[in-house]
Amino acid sequence: MNSMSKTILGVIAVIGLALFYMSYFVVDEKHKALVLRFGDINRVVEEPGLYFKLPFADTVTKIEDRIIIWENNDRPVQDVASQVYIVDAITLARIKDARLFRETLGADLMQAEARVAARLDAALRQTYGRRSCDAALSSDRAVMMREIRDALREEADTLGIEIVDVRVRRTDLSENVLEQTYRRMESERKALAQDIRSQGEATKTRMNAETDRTTTEKLAQARKEAEIIRGQGDAERNRVFAEAFEQDPEFFSFYRSMQAYAKSLGTQGTTMVLSPDSDFFRYFGHQSAPEKPAEGAPAP
């Protein structure tokens, strides 16, 4: 075999290897594959493995078969009271119909993300627009996410995309609305504090009035009982004095006079202006000198 034959055989072998290399392709578990023949979809390969195609006539386009995560952050929405929120959402999607995905979006994930994001904005506005501030931040959150997901699915199905789930990560008021909300909450708390303070003052006044009334009643009752006891004591004292007076009227008069002297003359600097022959001083009279015994009479 001459050199020319070897060269031809070598070229044929190289061309054969090239054709063989161009005639097969591998699909892994992370992708699907579209086999295009002269630009038209010939078949869809959804299972991983080794496949063959016509060289030069067929081309292979890989389609992502895993769950795709699209983040949509800082989306402004309004609630039913026209308060503006800033929402962060995550969309989980998968390409379920590779043929439809190629026909509608040219198998371009960036176009798919843009279309889904536009529909997501509309779904967020519709869902939040039917609710108040409290509902948007309460247990309705799960219901809202389901509503947004269902609204997205209607649009995504026409693109060959399956919306697996939609999660709202953050719902915050905008700066202006947040400041207004803080001021409103502050006013409400101040009004509540004032109401509680007023109730406390009313309770304090009522308790003070009840305490004063109870104190007055107890003092009056105590004075009444004291007066009764004092009257009983005076009556007993008068009875004792009466019995003593009946036994010795002169001694009783003397005793009472001594008490009167002690009360009226016991304090230093006391001045009394009375007639010397007043009955008050009858026990202060001078004792008369004893009479001299008559002459011849025996001494006592």
Describe this structure in words.
The chain is built from 7 helices and 8 strands; from the N terminus they run H-E-E-E-E-E-E-E-H-H-H-H-E-H-H. With 300 residues, it is of the alpha+beta class. A 3-stranded antiparallel β-sheet has the order 3-2-5, with no helix packed on it. Mean pLDDT is 80; it is low at 286-300.
Question: What is the topological layout?
Answer:
Elements: H1 3-22, E1 24-27, E2 31-37, E3 40-45, E4 49-52, E5 58-64, E6 68-78, E7 84-95, H2 98-105, H3 109-129, H4 133-136, H5 140-157, E8 161-173, H6 175-247, H7 249-265
Antiparallel strand pairs: 1-4, 2-3, 2-5, 6-7, 7-8
A few lines on this structure:
The protein is of the alpha+beta class. It has seven helices and eight strands.
End-to-end CA span: 202 Å
Uncertain segments of ≥5 residues (pLDDT<50)?
A: 286-300
Sheet with most strands: 3 strands, antiparallel
Number of helices: 7
Q: Total number of β-strand segments?
A: 8
Strand order of the largest sheet: 3-2-5
Keywords:
300 residues, alpha+beta, 3-stranded antiparallel sheet, rod-shaped, disordered C terminus
